[in-house]
Amino acid sequence: MNISKMRFLLLGASVISLGIILGTLLWLKLPAVPTQLGRHVQPLEGLNRYGTVPEFSLTERSGKSVSLGNLRGKIWVADFIYTNCKDTCPLQTAEMAKLQEQWQKQWNDRQNLKLVSFSVDPDHDTPQVLARYAENFKADQDRWLFLTGEKEQISQLVQGGFRLSAAPLTETGSQDQVILHSPRFVLIDGKTEIRGYYDSRDAEALARLKKDVATLMNEKRE
Q1: For a Cys-Cys bond, which of 24, 26, 166, 212 suits 181, CB 3.0-4.6 Å?
Q2: Once rounded to an integer, what is the mean pLDDT over residues 130-158?
Q3: Cβ-count burial 127-152 (b if 16+ within 10 Å, e if not)
Q4: What is the CATH number of domain 31-221?
């Protein structure tokens, strides 16, 4: 293979890689518009149905096993983070902490209303690491779960189950791994159906999340 052809192939590979990275970054900045049965659903129309969360069994920061069965019958909000994240994760977790504080006053119902944070970097985020991270945000262990487990299972759960993205990206010249992932919160009802997606950076979306949670909680109590 001559030098010109090799340079051409390397250039082509670089362009494709850059396109994938930029495309992922752009996707993460766009508002969530999940699809339902092939139809586009507007993100601010209130509660919808986006499919059922698949079965899983992961490890909580306490070391206990947590499965989907433990959350069945409960209303819960999920998000996706990793403890070394310096971008959206601290903001996401801070917003979850605010929800915890508000709902402790509004509902005071640890059994039926949960927060669940999934680590997208399970190789690093052991239960011990997650426990320290959770403590920094004063997470109530009975209300707010932090889950980790096998990397492949979490990847399938995030992408296939919740229909969100998580893609590792290693910065040039750095050993620190950056994981591009969705900053959206996901609302799940007692039948383990996904009912809504909410951009954690958007005040309007967070207000809608609180309203939708109140709707589901009131329905549950009727």
Answers
A1: 166
A2: 95
A3: bebbbebbeebebeeebbbbbbbeee
A4: 3.40.30.10
